[in-house]
Amino acid sequence: MKGCDLIFYTPENQYPGMPHGEMCGDIMPFYWEGRYILFFLYKYCIYAVETQDFVHYGKCRLVLQNGSPDEQDWHAATGSVFHHDGTFYFYYTGFCEGNRGVPGKYEQAILRAASVDLIHWTKDTGYFFPPDTRYYGDRHWRDPHVFWNPELKRFCMLVTATEKDGAVLRDGCTAVYVSGDVKHWEHYKTIYSPRTFPTHECHDAFQMGGRWYLTFSNYSRWWETRYRLAERFDGPWEMPDQDDMFDGREFYAAKTVTDGKKRYLVGWLSIRKDCRDDGRFVWGGNTCVHELIQREDQTLGVRMVEAVRRSFGLELPIQVHGFEGVWKLEETLQKQSEEKQAFRKLLTGISGDGFGWASLGELKDPCLFEATLRWKPGTKAVGLMIHVSGEKLERWCQLRLELTHQKIVMDYYNRIDGDQSYIDERPVRFRDGEARVQLLVSGTIMQVYVDDVALTTRCYSAQSGLIGVFAEYGTVSCVEPRLLGQ
């Protein structure tokens, strides 16, 4: 199987009607000796692919083959890899749907494999960790996440579990088991049980800047990856005031990995059924990576991976054409060094009575656009026009910075006539009348960063055309717009 250099890794090319199992899901990132090894679910087995920069990926390889329909790992599923005392341990989930309701058997159980080289893995057939019904329910029991806890000075395993006698679809909880050798585990406690979600999937826990963070995913309303923060591992775990997500409603099952300097959040971006804009989002898709940052208030934000940004080094032409509103382009010569000078571009648009926009150039695939957007007080919305085509705006996508509502929204030309699909949106605290905006397009994917807030989504029916800037009921300035290719 061939790897890819298209930023958003997946082992299969998208095609209409992609079935469950053909897509990349539940990525389990592991860092070792200068490389990131992304273990992931694929064809009901566990595979791995390696990268050093989240730009270039090698060929994927089979790690754990699933078993027969009569074995516990009929579907080999999510877990984590940990190194200790010369051995790599892979704790993973064994799914066997045929066991549901069968006395003495379990639909989900935690299994283990071991390796000395991260290539060849041996299943530990003597290890079997079924639901611990002393403390928890007997069905949801999966996604073991193992890490060293410096506060407890023990190895910890987070487990997706449910309260033993909890309310229906509100009994999801985070179970913790501890060990001194990564082999034998004993119950510690339930560290988070908010009585809100049916499950907390694909957990992660880590320290950053003196605080603890707990991440988990939930599918009860939409695909979503959330987080909580605490001063101590035992809690109490608090929900951030404004925003407890990292990306939009298609970013799922994200877990973190660190090289000791930076920490990255690695999840997957869902694909729509039949690869249509009106299809429902289904399980699995493309790898999606953000760098995590800690804000001054200790909440978490994200930004583009620096190696991804550097991979776009080809300067593409900016060509301004105003369509609606009044637009003015100013170029001033800026001295950057004794040897180098450059023109600083400033595009200003006024559209006081409604929508106005100007094009800036042609989007290639893949392509990166970046600029600083500024606006005058009272302006209702500014943003980017994306994949624009047609003399009368027949096709387009639109990144909206809704200034009054303090949020960003991704809108589409074909969201009309009773289309009930949800809006892709994220809350943002706009400050000082400006925001740094980056847009990365690759195939069907559009990934946006507005300051330290991300929104990644897809459009299938509009994948080429113009990039532009717009204003609604006010004035926008586009400072130093840059269009970059690879």
Please summarize what this structure is.
Belongs to the glycosyl hydrolase 32 family. Its EC number is 3.2.1.26. It contains one helix and 32 strands.
How is the secondary structure organized here?
Elements: E1 25-32, E2 35-42, E3 45-51, E4 61-64, E5 75-84, E6 87-95, E7 108-115, E8 122-123, E9 142-149, E10 154-162, E11 172-179, E12 186-192, E13 201-208, E14 211-218, E15 224-230, E16 251-258, E17 263-272, E18 281-294, E19 300-303, H1 306-310, E20 314-316, E21 321-322, E22 326-335, E23 341-363, E24 367-375, E25 381-389, E26 395-402, E27 407-412, E28 424-427, E29 434-442, E30 445-450, E31 453-458, E32 465-485
Antiparallel strand pairs: 1-2, 2-3, 3-4, 5-6, 6-7, 7-8, 9-10, 10-11, 11-12, 13-14, 14-15, 16-17, 17-18, 18-19, 20-32, 21-23, 22-23, 23-32, 24-29, 24-32, 25-26, 25-32, 26-27, 27-28, 29-30, 30-31
Strand content: over 45%
Helix content: under 10%
Measured distance between first and last alpha carbons:
24 Å
**Known CATH architecture of the largest domain:** 5 Propeller
Count of DSSP helices? 1
Q: What is the CA-atom radius of gyration, in angstroms?
A: 24 Å
| Number of discrete domains | 2
Q: Which spans of ≥5 residues are poorly predicted at pLDDT below 50?
A: none
CATH class division of the largest domain:
Mainly Beta
Structure summary, number of beta strands? 32
Query: What class do helices, strands and sheet pairing give?
Result: mainly beta
Largest sheet: 13 strands, antiparallel
Domain Glycosyl hydrolase family 32 N-terminal: 29-277
Pfam family, one: Glyco_hydro_32N
EC number: 3.2.1.26
Keywords: Glycosidase, Hydrolase
